[in-house]
């Protein structure tokens, strides 16, 4: 009992999400021995992968030999709970999961999918990485990013709001300011 | 030069069909330019009671940003509200419906009656062949026209899904023809940092958005008519 309590307390999960996309390159990149070893070395105990439309299934592991516990699922109506309980989030570059993670103040690595035709999404990830709100990587550089990252260097993101737009729209239409 | 002009003019007067055609084109062009010139100007007549509002939603983050914007707008001013999303996108209208329902819970019954939800055909699905997309594009435009004739909104709010383009173009044509004066507000998606989306670029270049908002300063520098409003998320 005491043991399992300790186990829960020190649980540190890496949550990988690809949203509704197909992003096998990312799932493969986190499913390598080298990568999982690096996560263990950094003190993470669990790896949970939301794999979306991809066809590559990662290997599950119960972690009995002291290695990383690996599990996966395909979709979920809400990943909010997964994000909340994660210690590190590795996400595709969709703006939805990026801002959901940043609002929860979780360390985030965004992995850009180079196979997408219109790849404007890397713009957002790169801009937010430049502002030090997250790390930006590609499937082939993800290992390097994790191996060299310093989570202390990340700055919290302060969510914006639509008040300035709303004000301009109201003024344009002739509605009085409140 | 002068001689050439005079020659051209006499040729035109000698052929009444060409003269009529040139006159019509000139009138239409003048009207289009006048509408473009008038469009970006604030409405300075007395403040309206409320405006019928068309809200274009879209998957991939667009809906979340739009609902964020709506949360800041007074619902009694922007009423009735017509939500529209692509026929293949079943999540967006559901999210809008949830938001409208939470309004009802807060205000007690009135809000949802002023909200309507509808789907629109997309001109092209990912991976569709070009030959069939000619047909589907025509169907999509006809459907958009039908919806716009039914609603004739006074305000259009959109932030970038491809479905907003035909709706905005039709709204502009309504202004040209004189069917309905409307104001189109376009908020470029937060995902666009350095380059506008195709919808955004076209609406900007064609002066079809009355107000054009961007969420990153880099874009405002490139497109000076845009208003920089900071991040919505």
From TrEMBL, chain A:
Pfam families assigned to the protein according to its UniProt record, in alphabetical order: Glyco_tran_28_C
Q: Which GO terms describe its biological process?
A: dolichol-linked oligosaccharide biosynthetic process
Concerning InterPro entries, the annotation shows: Glyco_trans_28_C, UDP-GlcNAc_transferase
Kindly state one GO CC term assigned in the UniProt record. Answer: UDP-N-acetylglucosamine transferase complex
Can you give the residue ranges of the Glycosyl transferase family 28 C-terminal domain?
13-167
Span of the signal peptide: none
GO MF terms, alphabetically ordered: hexosyltransferase activity
Q: What is this protein called?
A: Glycosyl transferase family 28 C-terminal domain-containing protein
Q: Which organism is it from?
A: Vitis vinifera
From TrEMBL, chain B:
List the GO biological process terms. Answer: dolichol-linked oligosaccharide biosynthetic process
Q: State the source organism's domain of life.
A: Eukaryota
Q: What is its main location?
A: endoplasmic reticulum
- InterPro entries given for it? Oligosacch_biosynth_Alg14 (IPR013969)
**Protein topology in the membrane:** Single-pass membrane protein
Record's GO cellular component terms:
UDP-N-acetylglucosamine transferase complex
Name where it's found.
Endoplasmic reticulum membrane
Alphabetically sorted, this entry's keywords are:
Endoplasmic reticulum, Membrane, Transmembrane, Transmembrane helix
Report whether Transmembrane shows up as a keyword of the record.
yes
Its transmembrane ranges are 18-37, 130-148, 154-174
* Similarity comment: Belongs to the ALG14 family.
For this protein, the record's PANTHER family field holds: GLYCOSYL TRANSFERASE-RELATED, UDP-N-ACETYLGLUCOSAMINE TRANSFERASE SUBUNIT ALG14 HOMOLOG
Spell out the protein name for this chain.
Answer: UDP-N-acetylglucosamine transferase subunit ALG14
